[in-house]
Write a structure and sequence with these properties.
By secondary structure, the chain is an alpha+beta fold. The protein is built from 20 helices and 25 strands.
Length: 764
């Protein structure tokens, strides 16, 4: 069986590759032409597309400016009508007659006749707008606009209130002054419909998008419920007399129309086909001429061999004519040869050309050929090219050198599947390696490299994956904080989870609330967060979510019992990394609308919220002052607890020095919040909960308010909760953890109470 294969190999090695013909050079020429024409065509197409894009940009910018001018003209007309009411004698008389609200009502009806497009017109005295309880029919944004008009004694700019709500409207306010222009007698507040703003064109197809925006300070809000592209608009135009502007985003992703691109591609193929046809005709003619001219060499040699007069051959190609002439001269110089006579010594044979020296540098010392004129072919020799018997190769017993590698597996050896299963099973550990004291009431926590090691974390991962399998949850979400030990422990946790057959969705470095978010959206899932929260840096641990709910004390102990008795499933789970921060931000930006921008100072302690909080608050329209918001910087030692007032002193100083509206401090994994007011004073957690509860109860009276034992009695018995028809529900800490996420989630978004429409901001 060996000999034929050895012979075939020798025969194959002796064969040389056929030299390339002239066809190859013509094909290379065709490809070269294509490579030259294609970039040229693409360049011309790009220039045309760039010119078209520039024209489209000018058109969109012009449309944006024209829309702004049109709206400004209408707004100027409306403001002119309202401004004339500042010195209206009838309004002055109505405000000068106190105690007669029916007089003001009658004046309101008269004003509606003068401005029929108005939704509502309200007249009220200055003392009403400064009342703490406000005015029942006015929103807080409208009340604030009236105060601005009274304080500035001038007509306000037109702005939009209740952005994004069904009752979104335009509003303007003007003071009614006495004859001497020294005292404000009252304020006129006018609500106008949104249809005074012409259609902003919305989507303009593939060219761009034009929207209205409201600008208050540094905050910008889109009025339409159309998702604007990321980044600032390419062009804006302010609308005179308002806080509005028109903005356009020019879509530059598709520079060339697909149909045009297809047409250019088809045209390019047609042109190349024509060029190929022309080249083929030229190749065919050249090949035929070359073959005929080469036969002329045969005729010359034939004449010389048969001792005939050497003929002069006329070639078809001028390039071959020179070679013919050189050959002709060489053959004419040869002496005629005769056969040796019998009985005479044989003529000495001509010396054969020297052969290459295979032991040296590849050339014989007598060779006249240059090294560059020789092509050397390297052969890949296998066992049957060694010209040795198989027995002399010292191969293992039963080994066939011509068999495929998969046939060489010894009998009794484990298969690849069994080897993988054995490797996954080796992730397990014994009960003696897992200390019981790290399994605490609400999380798993211990000293790194002492109580928490890689084998221990892998065992915990197996327990979590086994619990997820028991709940029918095929995927486990995993996140980690920025502690030095979290990366290695997170990898060990993922290995343990995958060793149970569960798939891992790795979120990377994220705050704990984002792990809770991922475990609840779009459906409940199991998750684990590698963190020790605000504990010293020598500690680390795991916070666990089972099927969308935070693990309670008995569930954490059940995980330990699984490890203790070996109740762990095995398998091979998949792995996928995912950036959850983008979808988390999009979810909150849809849910939260700010009527005005705030200046917010934040201290992330160089923890995980550094990657989320600053960008999120800026996206909501806030000016952000950052303190310790660098993920690349080391964590402070000791790690601060923002729930303690002394840990917010630096933040309070930043708030006072920069005039911020509020300060927010977070712990390493982002699930603890410290709040500082605009005076740099620390606000306790139960007072923050009172404010958040007040906002929730204003929209959902009678809702339970859940708090833990760390809150003071003011929360349970204070008027802040009971006055809004809420029923405080004290519960043990074990029953609060899941519900507390809602409060912390709202706190780490903006840490301020927002009403249902986003048009009122209550500061601390």
């Amino acid at each position: 069986m060996v000999a034929p294969r050895r012979e075939d190999a020798r025969h194959k090695a002796a064969e040389g590759d056929s030299p390339p013909g002239i066809k190859r050079f013509w094909i290379e020429s065709f490809i070269g032409i294509a490579l030259v024409l294609l970039p040229t065509a693409l360049l011309l197409l790009y220039v045309w597309a760039a010119r078209s894009a520039a024209d489209s940009r000018l058109l969109l910018e012009g449309a944006t400016d024209a829309l702004a001018v049109t709206v400004a003209s209408e707004m100027t007309r409306v403001r002119g009508v309202v401004q004339a009411w500042q010195e209206d004698p009838q309004l002055r008389a109505a405000f000068a007659a106190p105690g007669k609200p029916e007089t003001l009502k009658q004046r309101e009806e008269d004003l509606r006749k003068r401005l029929p497009e108005a939704l509502n017109i309200h007249l009220f005295a200055p003392e009403q707008i400064h009342a703490v309880e406000g005015i029942p029919f006015m929103s807080y944004a409208g009340l604030d606009l009236a105060r601005q008009a009274a304080q500035a004694r001038t007509l306000t700019l037109i702005e939009v209130h209740k952005v994004g709500q069904p009752d979104m409207h335009l509003a303007v306010a003007a003071p009614v002054l006495d004859a001497a222009h020294e005292r404000v007698l009252g304020v006129v507040h006018v609500a106008l419909p949104m249809n005074l703003l012409p259609n902003p064109l919305g989507s303009t197809g593939d060219s761009g998008l034009i929207l209205y925006q409201q600008v208050v300070g540094d905050a910008v809000a889109n009025l339409e419920r159309i998702d604007a592209p990321d980044g600032p608009p390419d062009h804006t135009a302010a609308i005179a007399g308002t806080r509005l502007r028109t903005a356009v985003w020019i879509k530059g992703a598709a520079l060339v129309d697909p149909w045009l691109m297809g047409g250019v591609g088809a045209g390019f193929l047609v042109v190349m086909a024509l060029i190929g046809a022309v080249l083929w005709l030229g190749y065919s003619g050249l090949r035929r001429a070359l073959l005929l001219d080469c036969k002329g060499f045969v005729a010359l040699v034939d004449d010389a061999v048969h001792q005939r007069t050497v003929r002069r051959i006329k070639t078809r190609l001028a390039d071959i004519q020179e070679a013919h002439q050189e050959t002709l001269n060489l053959l004419r110089g040869l002496q005629p040869t005769r056969a040796p006579l019998r009985g005479t010594a044989a003529a000495p044979a001509p010396r054969a050309p020297a052969l290459p020296d295979t032991e040296g540098d590849g050339l014989s010392p007598t060779s006249t050929l240059s090294e560059s004129s020789i092509e050397v072919e390297e052969l890949d020799l296998s066992v049957y090219d060694l010209d040795l018997p198989v027995e002399a190769l010292n191969l293992p017993e039963g080994f066939d050198p011509y068999a495929t590698p998969i046939e060489q597996t010894p009998e009794g050896a484990p298969s690849l599947q069994e080897a993988l299963d054995a490797g996954i099973a080796s992730y397990g550990t014994t009960q003696a390696d897992v200390p019981a004291e790290i399994f605490r009431a609400y999380d798993i926590r211990g000293l790194v490299d002492d109580q928490l090691t890689a084998p221990v974390i892998r065992a915990i991962g197996q327990a979590v994956g086994s619990a997820a399998a028991a709940l029918g949850d095929p995927t486990v979400v995993v996140g980690r904080d920025v502690r030095p030990s979290s990366a290695a422990l997170g990898d060990a946790l993922i290995q343990g989870i995958r060793g149970t057959g569960a798939n891992v969705l790795d979120l990377g470095v994220v705050p704990t609330p984002l792990v809770y978010f991922a475990c609840a959206h779009p459906q409940p899932q199991t998750g684990a967060m590698v963190t020790a929260s605000h504990n010293p840096i020598t500690y680390n641990g795991v916070k666990i979510v089972l099927n969308g709910e935070s693990a309670q004390a008995d569930q954490i102990q059940a995980l330990y019992r699984r490890i203790l008795v070996g109740d762990l499933v095995t398998g091979r789970g998949g792995y996928q990394a995912q950036d959850i921060i983008r979808s988390y931000r999009a979810y909150l930006e849809q849910d939260v609308n700010l009527a005005r921008g705030l200046t917010v100072a934040i201290d992330c302690g160089n923890g995980t919220l550094s990657a989320v909080a600053p960008a999120l608050l800026r996206a909501l329209g806030c000016q952000v002052l950052e303190l310790n918001c660098d993920l690349e910087s080391p964590l402070p030692d000791p790690i601060p607890d923002p729930a303690l007032p002394e840990c917010t002193r630096d933040l309070g100083e930043l708030v006072l020095s920069k005039g911020a509206d509020i300060g927010l401090a977070f712990d390493v994994d982002g699930d603890r919040l410290g709040v500082v007011d605009s005076q740099g004073r620390y606000i306790s957690a139960d007072r923050v909960l009172m404010l958040l509860a007040t906002d929730v109860l204003a929209r959902h009276p009678g809702t339970d308010i859940i708090y833990d034992v760390k809150c003071s009695r003011h929360l349970a018995h204070g008027e802040s909760v009971l006055a809004h028809r809420g029923w405080p529900s004290p519960r043990a800490a074990a029953g609060v953890f899941r519900h507390a996420q809602v409060v912390e989630h709202q706190a780490d978004v903006a840490c301020q109470a927002l009403d249902g429409g986003g048009d009122r901001v209550a500061g601390f």
